[in-house]
Amino acid sequence: MINIAEKGIVMNTNELSGLLPAEHEHALMDAITPAMRWDGQTDPDEWQRTARTRLAGLLGLAQIEHYRTDLRPTVEYDRYDEKLHAREIRFRFFSEENVSVPCHLLIPADASGPLPVVICLQGHSTGMHISLGRPKYSGDEETICGGDRDFAVRALNEGLCALTLEQRCMGEQGGTPDGPACQEPALRALLLGRTVIGERVWDIMRAIDVLESGFPVRVDAAHITCLGNSGGGTATIYASALEPRINIAVPSCSVCRYADSIAAMAHCACNYVPGIALEFDMGELCSMVAPRPLLVVNGRFDPIFPLSGAEACVAEARRMYGAMGAGDRLHHIIGDGAHRFYADDTWPVLRKETDRILSVDRGQ
């Protein structure tokens, strides 16, 4: 039981009126210590195994996996993009019964062999075309250019493959020209014992299955980075916490204490997981990525994922990274702006971590 008084939290109230419901909930959020917080003594590998089981349960992955089906990948087109100087393969696969996920795989035209892949996850936007740098609707141009959100283009320029996939409730997966449509699907998912975050994580996992199968073309599926901003960053940190096949995680403008972010103000319904604050905060999710490289990106002046809440999560994760002898693989990149991606601050660090992993794995 959470004792607010023991935590030293004092509200402006009196014995007769009590707290307003919102005040009471904020007080509970501030007072709670997640049950899965690492105690500093449990073996890190054992803790991570337990944490992944608990987190998968909260996200409803068992309910989603119940509808697992054959991937049935199908190429829709395979062409050369002169502007990007890349081969572009548009394909679909089934992540569960009746759910077909559209994707674009971009491969540098001068690739001499299988290359590592960056999974690019757009935030709350009009769709994955943002990651491809292709405006479709009014406002898309500013979304792309105003925040370095053309992730796939930058990955190509860095000599890597890029995979975009349409996240549920966005773009071709139920979005609108005005943006995502998460509210009703997120609430329906809760009635079904699942969550939209869990569904998005599941789609990422199944996309990795597709890459490992060698479809639609052989890539270096042993070296996968997951990168996203805002809602894409949220999907990135949850997927990376649960999916060890993701080698490097780059969540941007998404890692923050729940009490300071999604519990402090109105956010999209897709951010909420029933009961998660009792078990985890985002510091624990970051700790589940260790010892793999983790690049937490934040804006110094981001009003909806405040820097102080992000710093608290990174500080918690540093305990686990230190215990696993990987302190140098946890990076906190702070851009001098608000809610956006910071490509020029992030990519030099990501490039260094990618090259280090490749060098070790290839015995160089």
Note the main attributes of this structure.
single chain; alpha/beta; 364 residues; 9-stranded mixed beta sheet; globular
Write up this protein:
The protein is an alpha/beta fold and 364 residues long. Helices cover 36% and strands 17% of the residues. It has 12 helices and 9 strands. It has helices spanning 21-31, 44-59, 61-65, 140-145, 151-157, 183-191, 196-212, 231-242, 276-279, 282-289, 307-323, 343-361; strands at 74-81, 86-96, 99-108, 117-121, 161-165, 224-229, 248-252, 294-299, 330-335. The protein has a 9-stranded mixed sheet with strand order 1-2-3-5-4-6-7-8-9, with helices on both faces. Strand 8, helix 11 and strand 9 form a beta-alpha-beta unit. The radius of gyration is 20 Å and the shape is globular. The relative contact order is 0.13. The mean pLDDT is 95.
Note the topology.
Layout (H helix, E strand, L loop, with lengths): L20 H11 L12 H16 L1 H5 L8 E8 L4 E11 L2 E10 L8 E5 L18 H6 L5 H7 L3 E5 L17 H9 L4 H17 L11 E6 L1 H12 L5 E5 L23 H4 L2 H8 L4 E6 L7 H17 L6 E6 L7 H19 L3
Helix pairs in contact: 7-8, 8-10, 10-11
Write a brief structural summary.
This protein is an alpha/beta fold. The chain has helices spanning 21-31, 44-59, 61-65, 140-145, 151-157, 183-191, 196-212, 231-242, 276-279, 282-289, 307-323, 343-361, and strands spanning 74-81, 86-96, 99-108, 117-121, 161-165, 224-229, 248-252, 294-299, 330-335. The protein contains twelve helices and nine strands.
